[in-house]
Amino acid sequence: MSMYKSGLDMLRCALRSTSLWKCDSFILTQTSLCYKSRSFAVSSQLERKSTQGHTLKQARYYCQSAEDVQIKQTAASTETNELPDKVEKAPFYTHLQNCLCPTDVLDTLKKFPASQQHVSSIFSRMWESSKRMTDEQRRCELQLMFEHPLFEQVCERAMTEAWRMRSEDLAYSLLASVNLGVSQNTRLVQTLLRVVQERLNQFDIRSLSVLASCIREMENSRNVQALREALRLLLKDRIPEIQSVVFLQSMMRAVGKNSPILLKKQLATKALSLADEFSPPNTQYMFSSLAAMGLNFKPLLDVCSKKIAENVHEFPFGRLLSVLKSCHELHYRNYTLFSSISEYVANTFDMWSNKQVILLLVTFENLSFRPVILLDAFAERIIQRSNSLTLKDLLSVLKIFSLLNHDLKEKKTEFLASVTMVLESYLPKLPPTDLLKAVHYLGLLEHFPRAPLEKLLQKDTLDQLLQKAKQLDKIQRWLHTLDLFLRLDKPRLPPSLTSVPELHITVPAHEVKVNQEVLSAVRSIVGTDALQDNVLEQSIYLIDCVITLPHQTEETSALSAEECARRIAVFCAPPTSFCFGTTHPRASLAIKLRHLEKLGYKPVVVPVLELNSKTEEEKIELLQKLIFPAQEPTGTQEIPNNRPKAE
After folding, report:
1. pLDDT in tens, 157-196
2. Dihedral, 127, 131, 134, 136 alpha carbons, nearest 10
């Protein structure tokens, strides 16, 4: 009985038996290769190709994200840097170094026919030369490359020599051909994939890193998925050999989110052991590498956050934005990291355009972080240069300031006047949905400009929105909030309206259960007669319990009029109701507080996070201070902990 030396050998045998590496039948019956770049199909070219019996395949171009540039540049530069060592051995490499575009490389082959050792260098040089071009230049050069008569010969030679190539040359040839836009369904790519799979055990760490970068660029076909699984099996035994941070990050990106959690943690633990060697770019790429695996590995993220916070001035804008987006994807929060980025941008504010600042603030809002200094600086710029805002910018600005419930204090009036002026300039061409969105955000800031409100409340506009609300829950909720604004905030209506229009919008309340611990603690304070639990106001505002106080009596005569309010609404607020690291309420909580006051309640907010960390006696004492603050000693009435903290 034959024995398998490793799990990889077993997988390879299974792959052979299931024929996963065979191309589709119509690809296998091709008599020749054909490569076609995107949008280069010319009718005459099609006719010529069909008469020659060639089957055209559309090539795909894989764009490089900012996070991948370091790994790809390392792979390409490693191959290119080997050329000077070879120059003395053959004049071919001297000419190859002087080629500035893919067609120059192919023209060189007329003088120096490609040998087995040249194939990988040819593909890598074509890819390297195309990376330095603009998008339009690259498009034209790749068109010429695909149409060059020698390109097909190079591809044929690559297939022929693939079985005799070194592992490193195989990996570079596959990576370069994919990034040049060669279709994944062509015989060239399929042949390289099969040879790679056959010889995967022979790959060293560098070759595996290049292969990992290539796999991330390829479509998730059966062949690629099988190779990815084989790479995962191999990595389990090879992780201790990895000593390069860049190579390790390439592996982390390649294994993907569907890999076993044990493998992910092994890679992250290995990265943590190399943390002392991290350069500033390494720390940023580690965020995106962990995001590519879908692993929130807090010890590693904390180390990287500290390094970025200490050297934030060394990072360009794109990398800082990438870090924040990775934090959002990983559900990771770090107050020190967020503060350092926001303060750096605020201190160098004149360097950044409106677009950059808005992108950063939108990401901060997604993270529930309120960068106070940066928001104040941006508000000042808007007041001075409001005309520079596009409609998209305006809607983003309104969303950021309203959802973060940012208080501009004495600048609020000027800010609202500026954004209102910009909004009114776009009114003639503003779609109903955007108009509703803008009025909604302004309403959260308790500002109701007449012109936008008048246009929104026109019958035709409301009819269109009510029709859309049947398909979109978000519009339905916005209309319901608009109805609350009109009935509770009671803004001045346009002259054309004599009464508040009936919108007849009802939305299901959020499925939030009453906090029984709070209910029990409140009962021990005020008794059961004065307590009503599980109260729902306006079909949307859940109150855990309402305390109904009697009018002035001997027991309450010592309290001020505010404490003698007839109804006290006590409700719990989860951490998501506050801006991260503080107890500053976000929009949903702020509007609930405002409207409950309009309805005659004295709202009392109980932070759930603060409550969960206390004993039963401490909970009662906490609620006693919140509900009746005048009864506690001076200086101890502040319940929530405003101290910034990191998760």
Report:
1. 888 888 888 888 899 999 998 988 888 888 899 899 989 9
2. 20
